[in-house]
Design goal:
elongated; two-stranded antiparallel sheet; six-stranded mixed beta sheet; 179 residues
Length: 179
């Protein structure tokens, strides 16, 4: 039995028009999937599969927390996640991802949803991931300030003085907005 076998959904063997699945995604799941965004968390996932003729409508409802590195200090940061996503799947001759619809080979007849669970959580994360003000690692912030290019405005003043003389003449140009 593989690490992600419990995330297989048997589409050909689906006897009812609707199926509900529940998963507790923990550090073991996130560590095994080895994604780039995060590798720790505790997320509850409820997956509903509805069969409509030859299309299977998947709904993923997930809530919990994941642990990501802070963009500022690199310490661990716990982020709340709550998301709902959908996926359409149909059986076909070979595997294909046709934009809105995933085609699963009919001879296989099942779809492993482990990676979709991870991806939908990753898509729900904010672009900027930083601790609340005053919560970042102060040692790291000190090192960041020490190595930043602008320290107390001194570097900005130096930069203003070192203008390439070939461009200095541009300061004297006047533009008429009406022409």
């Amino acid at each position: 039995m593989g690490r992600f076998d419990k995330y297989n959904v048997d589409l050909k063997g689906l006897k009812t028009a609707s199926l509900n699945l529940e998963f507790e995604l923990d550090n073991v799941f996130f560590g095994d999937i080895d994604g780039e965004e995060f590798q720790k968390g505790a997320v509850r996932a409820v997956v509903t599969v509805k069969k409509n003729r030859d299309i299977f409508d998947f709904t993923f409802a997930m809530s919990g927390t994941v642990v990501v590195p802070c963009d500022r200090c690199l310490d661990e940061l716990e982020i709340e996640v709550e998301t709902e996503n959908s996926l359409k799947v149909k059986l076909g001759s070979e595997y294909a991802d046709e934009g809105d619809v995933v085609v699963v080979p009919e001879q296989d007849g099942d779809l492993n949803i482990a990676w979709y669970l991870y991806e939908f959580i990753a898509l729900a994360l904010p672009m900027k991931r930083v601790h609340a003000p005053g919560k970042c690692n102060s040692d790291m912030l000190g090192k960041l300030k020490k190595h930043s290019s602008v320290e107390d405005g001194e570097a900005v003043e130096e930069e203003k003085q070192e203008v390439d003389p070939r461009w200095a003449g541009l300061k004297n140009l006047q533009f008429d907005e009406n022409n």
